[in-house]
TrEMBL record:
Residues 1-21 form the signal peptide. Its EC number is 3.1.1.-. It comes from Cordyceps javanica. One of its GO terms (biological process) is xylan catabolic process. Belongs to the tannase family. The lineage of its organism: Eukaryota, Fungi, Dikarya, Ascomycota, Pezizomycotina. Residues 292-302 have a biased composition (Basic residues). It is an enzyme of class 3 (hydrolase). InterPro entries: AB_hydrolase_fold, Tannase/feruloyl_esterase. It comes from the Eukaryota. This is Carboxylic ester hydrolase. The keyword Secreted does not apply.
Length: 587
């Protein structure tokens, strides 16, 4: 074990709060959380031991989750908390017996959910965080509860999280006898947006925020995601030029990789720097075949023209035009940008959603229950007008596209943002754009600088002090994909991060000193540990070493690791074995 993190060791040995098991169980069962939170009702109070299941049979069936194995001894608290006369949240707080570092972790939600992400509660509490989650103000995976109820929309936008966080801090203080020393947030997708929104509206809520694939500029994002269906047409024979799923996964994906995979020097299915990939679908046009068929038909007169070649080999002009629209920036009729372009290389996963030839469910729910309050709204009514309406009404202030997070920055908050380069739900180019937006509003210390290059460098340096954005090459939406996508961004496989000391890669970071070393909670490989090291020790992450397991199975062992670069640095291949992290460098 290394002791370079002595500062943290010292803090943690002081603050690690351990109560003997019998006392802890008794204290848990005698605790009256509802006495400490206004307008709350107790729904669950139990002591759970490591390895047993937390069950939640009342969870909405659409959440498709009824139990979660806990990974530490803990006190599980469930409350409902009223947020207005016509809205409430379901709230869970898992208080571990070993409260490492007196830390609180709030977790986010996804999509248009109403589902507590229990694997994240298990993950946080396994590392000693008092960890909370809420149902974000409604139950299940539909936004129907928002119909004509702005309070439910407000909960979904920001109030459920803020209410839960406030309750979590209060309850931790009441239970442990001392309030949290540090508060963190971790969430992805809608949850990434929730983290950014919290930094904007409630900058004191968190010291450290880990925000993945944030759904910022939310109203226009919903418009952009709705658009794909109108371009692809309907699956199942509904549209003559519909591109079949098999064609997307085969012909189109292969051609994207043929054009772009090798740009980084290694053909491995990973497009390291997506901004360098400008996919040209023109190569897929059945031009030669079509012309041959036409000539033959004309010259020989009485012989029918050849049938068009199958879609698995090439595409007709309408289909190629379709691809041009899909891979292009989405623009308003006047040509200004509405939303950045889709990530090339995401096709295999995108056929499950944006490219499925079906209306994109999250967008439909948003227009029905948040924008128009009309449950009969469907994609036949989709237009630039309804996108404008969403942007104008900005339901529940959900837009989340600030030009600055100055208050969060000023109070010393740290944000780590990550986004997969082959994301099939929210384009990573949106996170690049958001970084530039924030960077453009940095106060420049050297205002006399006449060089735009040095001004840009100064802006990046200023951003590095509080906001770092990591492009996760080859990752899909929040996880999965051909890249090294495991780095502690959430529960499940993503939580199983190896320690640097247990791999061939040694960066000198060693154990993070959280008192339970050797569990992989290492700032070099784990983004949540990196946030802790940054907030509590001032050690900002330069890179994040991601891990790819063989077939994404932890049991099969590590396939390879790669360091993810912080924007605007880009992954650069140096040569040698591409599966060695040392064969790459961020420049
Ligand atoms: Ca590559």
């Amino acid at each position: 074990m290394q002791f370079q993190s002595g500062w943290l060791m010292a803090i943690c040995f002081q603050q690690l709060l351990v109560v003997d098991a019998a006392n802890f169980e008794e204290r848990c069962l005698q605790f009256r959380p509802q006495a400490f939170v206004d307008d709350s009702q107790l729904t669950r109070l139990e002591y759970l031991t490591e390895g047993t299941d937390a069950v939640f049979p009342e969870n909405d069936p659409s959440c498709n989750s009824y139990k979660q194995q806990v990974k530490a001894n803990l006190c599980r608290i469930g409350l409902t908390i009223k947020t207005s006369e016509r809205s409430e949240i379901s709230f869970e707080l898992w208080l571990p017996e070993k409260w490492a570092g007196k830390r609180l972790l709030s977790t986010g939600n996804g999509g248009v959910d109403g589902c507590i992400i229990y694997p994240d509660l298990a993950y946080g509490s396994s590392h000693g965080f008092a960890t909370l989650g809420t149902n974000n103000g409604h139950n299940g995976k539909s936004a129907r509860a928002m119909l004509n109820n702005e309070d439910v929309v407000i909960d979904y936008s920001y109030r459920a999280l803020h209410t839960g966080t406030r309750a979590g801090k209060r309850l931790a203080e009441a239970f442990y006898g001392a309030g949290p020393a540090y508060s963190y947030y971790s969430g992805c997708s809608l949850g990434g947006r929730m983290g950014i929104q919290a930094a904007d509206l409630y900058p004191d809520d968190y010291d450290g925020i880990v925000a993945g694939a944030p759904a910022v500029d939310f109203n226009l994002l919903q418009g952009q995601r709705a658009m794909f269906f109108n371009v692809t047409g309907a699956a199942g024979g509904g549209s003559p030029d519909y591109i079949e799923t098999g064609t997307w996964k085969g012909l189109v994906h292969d051609e994207v990789l043929r054009q772009c995979d090798g740009l980084d020097g290694v053909r491995d299915g990973i497009i390291e720097v997506p901004s360098r990939c400008r996919f040209d679908p023109g190569t897929l046009l059945c031009a030669a075949a079509t012309r041959r068929g036409t000539r033959r038909g004309t010259r020989r007169g009485n012989r029918p023209p050849s049938p068009p070649p199958p879609q698995s080999e090439c595409l007709n002009e309408a289909q190629v035009e379709q691809l041009r629209s899909i891979y292009a920036e989405y623009r308003w009729p006047n040509g200004t940008l509405l939303f950045p372009r889709m990530n090339p290389g995401n096709e295999i996963a995108a056929t499950e959603g944006l490219l499925a030839g079906k209306p994109f469910n999250y967008s439909v729910e948003y227009y029905r229950y948040e924008v128009t309050n009309d449950p009969s709204w469907d994609m036949s009514r989709f237009s630039f007008d309804v996108i404008r309406r969403g942007e104008r009404t900005n339901p529940g202030r959900i837009r989340t596209y600030p030009t600055t997070l100055q208050r969060f920055q000023a109070r010393g908050g740290k944000a780590i943002v990550y986004h997969g380069g082959q994301d099939q739900q929210i384009t990573s180019f949106n996170s690049e754009r958001f970084y530039e937006r924030l960077a453009g509003h940095q106060d420049q210390e050297d205002s006399s600088s006449s060089s735009s290059t040095s001004a840009a460098a100064a802006a990046v340096a200023a951003m590095d002090g509080w906001y770092r954005f990591f492009r996760i090459a080859g990752m899909q939406h929040c996880g999965g994909g051909p890249g090294a996508w495991v780095f502690g961004q959430g529960g499940g496989v993503a939580a199983v991060t190896p320690s640097t000391s247990s791999t061939s890669e040694t960066t000198g970071d060693g154990d993070d000193g959280d008192g339970d070393g050797g569990d992989g909670f290492d700032p070099a490989t784990n983004v949540l540990a990196a946030a802790v090291a940054w907030v509590e020790g001032g050690r900002a992450p330069a890179t994040i070493l991601g891990t790819k397991y063989v077939n994404d199975s932890v049991a099969l062992g590590v396939d390879f690791q790669r360091r993810h670069c912080r924007y605007p640095q880009a992954q650069t291949y140096l040569g040698g074995d591409a599966k060695q992290a040392s064969s790459w460098e961020c420049r």
